[in-house]
Structure formats: C-alpha cells, structure tokens
Amino acid sequence: MSEKQMEKLVDDFLKRVKKRLPGWLTDKKREVKDIMNELESHIWEKAEDLSETRDPTMQSMKLAIAQMGTPSSIAREYKKRGTPKIYITEELWPYYIKVLKVAAILIVIGFVVGFIVNIILGDIEEALGIFNVFNVLFFVFAIITVIFVALSMEGYLPEDFISEKDRKKREKEKKKAEEKGFISPKTGKIVKPFIQPTEKIVGGIIGLIAGAFFVSFTVSEIAAPFNSQFLMIIRVFGIFILIDGGLTLIRGIVGKKQVLMHQVFIVVTAVLKIASIWFLLMIYSNPEIVSILYFEGNAWKVMEIPLEYFEAFKNAVLIIIIIQGISALVDLYKAGQLEKYKLLIE
Amino acid sequence: MIKRIKQLSPNALIAKEKFKDFVEKFESEINRGISTLCVLTIIKESGEDGIYAYKILKTLREKTEDILIIEEATIYPLLRKIEKEGIIDSRKLKKGRRKKYYSITKEGEQVLSHITGYYSKLTKAISPLFDVKVNLQQNKYYFCPMCANKIDLSESTAKYCEICGYNIERDLKERRLE
Question: Can you tell me the ipTM of this complex?
C-alpha cells in the first residue's frame, strides 16, 4: 500500500472530525488547523508504533485510526466545556437569566402599550388581551431555555460570542479600569460608568427643545381656544421639561465627575416628577378641561374629550401617574446608588 | 480498568449494566482531576524543551503501568484548556510533522506544586480508610501547613510559601538541621 493511500485515509478521517466539531470552535480557523495538525501527527506516530517494522503500514494505520475513537467521540470532547448546572452551564447561566429578564420586560412593555392604546380607543375587549401576556411569556421563556440548553450541550462559553477585536478592547478597558481603581472589590469586574455623557447631552437638548415648544405653544394663537386651566398645566409641564432638559444637559457636559452634583440633579428631577403628579391628578379629576387639537380642512381646530371617552381617558391618565411615581422612586434609588462611585472617584 | 474487567467472567458483578455504568462513571470522575495532575507533572518533567501530546500519553501509560489511561481524543481538549488558563505554554514545530510541544509556565509550576502537595496530603489522610500506607517522603519534601504546597527541601530557600504567603522559614531551618 502506498503512502498516498494512507494519507488519504488520514485526511478522510480528519475531515470527518472537522465536520463534527462544535460551532464555537469551527469559527476559530487557526485553532482548528492546529487541532487537525496535532491529530494527524498523532495518528502517524501511532501507526509507526503499531507497525512491526516501525514504518507505518495500511494495517497499522487503520488500527491507529480505530484507536483514536470515532470522529463524533473526538468532536464530543470539545463540547465538554463549562460547569454543569441544571442543563445550562454555570458560565452561561447569568446570560440566560439576563436574556429572560430582557425578554420579559419587552413583552410586558409591549402588552402595557397595547393596553393603554386600547383603553384610549375605548376597546375594552382588546384591552383585556393583556392577560395573554402569561402565555406569551411562557412560550418565549421555553424557546430561550431550549436555545441555552443547546448552547451548553455544544460547549459554548460566553467568550465565544465575543470577537477577537472586542476581547482585546475589553482587556484594554479592564487594564485602564484597574489603573484607575474602577474594579468592584466584590465581583472583581469593571464598575460601569454611571453616566453616558453623549446620551445625556443629546437627551438634554431634546428636553430643552420640547420644553420650549410646550411653553411657547401656550402663548401661541393656536392655543387661544384652549381651556385656561389646561393651558396653565401645559405651561407647567413645559417648564418642568425645560428644567429637566437643562439639568440633563449640564450632567452630560460635566460627565463622570462631581458625583454629588449628579445626585442633587437626579433628586431635583425626581421632585419634578412627583410635582407633575399633582397636575396630572387635576386632569384626572377634571377631564372636561382637556382640549384636543386636530387638523381639519386647512386649519387647526379644538375639541373637548367626548363624554363617553371620559372613563378610558381617566384610566390612561392613572397609568401615566403610576409610571411617573415609579420613575421618581427609581431616580431616588439611582441617586443613592451613586454613593459607591464617590469612593471610587475620590 | 474496566477494559480488563470486561474480559472476565460474564457472571461478574460488573457484567450487569447498572453496576458497570456506576463503576465507569465513578472511575471517570476520579480520573478527571488525577489525569490533569499527571499530565502536568509529565510536562514539567520534560523541562524547557517541552513534550508533545502523543508522547505524554505514552509516558503516562508507561509510568502508571497502564493503570491510568487517557483516551486518545481527550488529551487535546485538556491541553487546550490548561493552555488557555496559562498553566502551560506551547510552540509549534515548523519542520516535519507539525507537532506542538507543551512546556509548563512559571505560574503553572507553582500551581502544580500546590496541587501535588494537596493531593499527596489528601492521599495520606485517607490512606487509613483503605488500609494502605502512603509515604510522603518528608525527608525530601516540606508541605506547607497552611495550603499543603509541596516544597523541595533541597531547592527552596524561600521565607514564605509562594502559594499562600505563610511564613515557612523557621520550619524549613529546623527540618534542614534534622
């Protein structure tokens, strides 16, 4: 038997192994090449050892390949990664929980928005569809769980989802954070910055524009037919949005310094949100003061909320009040959480 | 081990699937950690030049008299894993068969001396349960009382255990005087 035939035998075997390697490994071409080279050299040396003449023969080659195990069993060894934990590995577990949480939040938000829209439109039957949220949650959770179990069985680790470029970037960030002391003593991980300056600057500018629009609207001609009490409420909201926009802009400009200032500004924002609840309650108790602007013909027209929509409108306002209340509490919590950054920055 | 038992009488306990599975799993659990420990020791003994995977398997078979056998395919993922952890290093041969030579890193050596020490002390501690004797060769080695790190008395002049930082100077002096 010629050496070429033996080479073909080895190549065929290696091809079958390569085909069965897990997805996380096949993406790493250099590593796969290394593995194939090592296996190839292993088979040849083993065939030499098994041959009586010390020169590999077709028989010793076949025996060497057989002793390597099946291509599937070799590939399976590369899937044994991660620490087992209830079908999903310990390494993937935090990501599994995170994905479940994000999915749950998105689904609940989707259903709540649908609920509000249906309440405003007065379609109570459709609005009751909110109770389907549990079926959808169950279905989505089941799909996510199956995906994560499959990933665990294939031996995927969180690092396999990060490109080489991102991995290097993260290492650089970690090094920088270590130098500055931005590493959590509890988890050993990088403490995320408490503010994204660009995001705040853009948000602040949008807030200022929106606030200015509401305030100027109340003194415009279009608003003349509006109920005066309702106009006053719009003006107050406009001023609140202006202040909030200004504070957000300043926070963005100041950036990751002056933690105390950020805390004070966040508390002021929370106070504004709580104050706005007072005005929302005024609208809730007197829906007849609300004026709706609409475009008809070639002109803007104003109308009041029809009596039959009062209940639906009041429900929608109530939901906004609840959201404002929760948002204010979240702000206060965030202000408290910033305490830990004080130590790190100082 | 199971491979040998398979050749015995069909009436043996191990011929029953239930017990065979149990024993196989049990042995595999015991072997997992020990295999890594032995592979690391063989790599360390190969020195700076290093050793390639096939040679590691052959050495392991020879040294353990065919008792501890690592499946051919298992060695590569194992080496890959410990290399990623920074315990070993590798270099590729550019000529001939593209073999990869593995050698132990400085940190790997420290980790190995600690694990070896721990394993040796553990074996000694449990030996009365199995009515066997284990000789720790305490005339040659010192085991850190804090972390069981195995320290070669002929080589070490360290004041502190390099694994846990325990002050070993006085103990070492006394041992040398003995």
Answer: 0.79
C-beta separation of A41 from B52 below 8 A: yes
Is A34 at the interface with chain B, CB within 8 A?
yes
Around A16, how many Cα atoms within 13 Å sit in the side-chain half-sphere? 13
C-beta atoms of A41 and B71 within 8 A: no
**pTM of structure:** 0.62
* Chain B residues closer than 8 Å to A40 by CB: 97-98
Name the token pair of B15.
């011929």
Cross-strand bridge partners of residue B104 = B88
Q: How close is the nearest chain B Cα to the Cα of A37, in Å?
A: 6
- Alpha-carbon span A22 to A31, nearest angstrom: 12
Chain B residues lying within 8 Å of A31, measured CB to CB = 80
* Each residue's pLDDT tens digit, A117-143: 777 676 767 777 777 888 899 999 999
Q: What are phi and psi of B141, to 5 degrees?
A: -125, 150
Residue pair A81/A157 in contact by the 8 Å Cβ criterion: yes
Q: Cα–Cα distance between A64 and A54 in angstroms, integer?
A: 13
Q: How many CB atoms lie within 10 A of CB A62?
A: 15
